[in-house]
Amino acid sequence: MSAKFAAGDLANGLAAPRDRGAWERLSANPKPEGRAFIAGRLMAARDGRVFEDISPIDGKSICTVARCGPADVATAVSAARDSFERGAWRRMEPKERKRILRRFAEAIRADVDRLALLETRDVGKPIQNSVSVDVANCADCIEYYAEFADKLYDEVAPTGPDDLALVRREPLGVVAAIVPWNYPLIISCWKVGPALLTGNSVVLKPAEQSPLSGIRLGELACEAGVPPGVLNVVPGFGEEAGKALALHPEVDLITFTGSTEVGRLMLRYAAESNLKRVALECGGKTPQVVFADADLEAAAAGIAWGIYYNSGETCHAGSRLIVHESVREALLAAISRVTATITLGNPLEPTTQMGALIDANHMRRVLGYIDSGVRDGARIALGGRQALTDSGGFYVEATVLDGVRPEMKVAREEIFGPVLAVMSFRDEAEAVRLANDTPYGLAAAVWTHDMNIAHRVSAALRAGTVWVNAFDRSTMATPFGGFKLSGSGRDRSPHAIDKYCDLKTIWTAYA
Ligand code: NAD
Predict the structure, then answer these.
(1) Domain count along the chain
(2) Structural domain of residue 18, as residue ranges?
(3) Nearest-angstrom CA–CA distance, 129 and 112
């Protein structure tokens, strides 16, 4: 999500240097809000049901959260539809919409402590990253799209002299944004930003593991002047709230980020309901391809951080290392040296660089993948075990599996944890073949100083983003999304705007 890795490496002035005790004291005040946010108001689920929101830091409950079901989703969609039809947002002067969205971005920045704490306690990511990456990027994203509000022009098509054909961009109506738990704030804003910019009304469904920052976003948007009903937030489970939202006939677009498996369901829900549009950002299995002439120290840093940042719970985490056999050992030694400097610990400790995994099930799944790699013949070169076992939380060591073969499960499936699978190659053709030997196509990286190799290989790789001698560098200005089973459509950049609009042609014949 960002090249900002080191603890204390604070972006955009969002520095909140505190010790762990201070963060813990702040956690209690104010108490996190777990109700849904619909039509500008906080609401319990209609049937009063709640679920416990468990923190992966220590396995303890943070608070209870409204368990929204179909009735709550129907209320939220109807609030979104009403606000859209009434037009207070859609028809607002573009420069006024820009002003409100900029205020929303500023409100996010001003709320950095609270948002960062919600994100860290829900997801288990280091507090410094929540402050300097998650909250900072979230505010930047809203601000980025705000700026388009009074700068986007529609088109006049070339016609003969007796006609005028306007091609106008119009908002779709009600957008359902269904998001995962690994970067709740950032991914929500990647969707909410362009959807609001273009005048849509939104129902946001955060993941059940990380509902709190999304609810707060709804409140902040409203406080900044986004009219009630334009941004609604329905926490709840995928098969209840998520499914009801995706099947709802009054939803015009599902913009989804999550697993490929649930992405497929979204297409089915659209087909079974109203043929709503579907934009999918799904899983990944990113290759890091290292040639013999690469700067191994730079590559080692990019590779270690590329898999261990956010505990490997990143869709484009560089989880497959494909290295020329002549430099394999030297590179693995350099990766071990970098990894030894990464502090695994309590995410509220400001020096922590690697925190917890999202929940106990997921931790068991990741450890199960490590076991399966060993059973299939791979060797644990680093880590491989559960960590901080007396914390009550869900931590796994930074792990390297060496001697992986392309047919193994650990080479093919998305582990979504801090596990690097290492394979080697002899020539460029084999490197490209191994790198592309995956159903996913979200991202890839190439490490070489030979520009011929760099250009040839980056052109041959089937992925939405290819980094050369870098990893995870990005800004709002570059599109993000995948090829193949990694999805369709793009978040970020001006290209993301199109998916929130319909095109209307207005053809006028002069009398
Ligand atoms: P997930 O697919 O389990 O859940 C994503 C969202 O879908 C959640 O809000 C969940 O509640 C909802 N959902 C689950 N089942 C549903 C159903 N039957 N009907 C409707 N909604 C349902 O994914 P996750 O475990 O939250 O996140 C991890 C996955 O997300 C990984 O595969 C990761 O690669 C992917 N991801 C992709 C990107 C990207 O930009 N390509 C970014 C981040 C994460």
Answers:
(1) 2
(2) 10-282+487-505
(3) 12
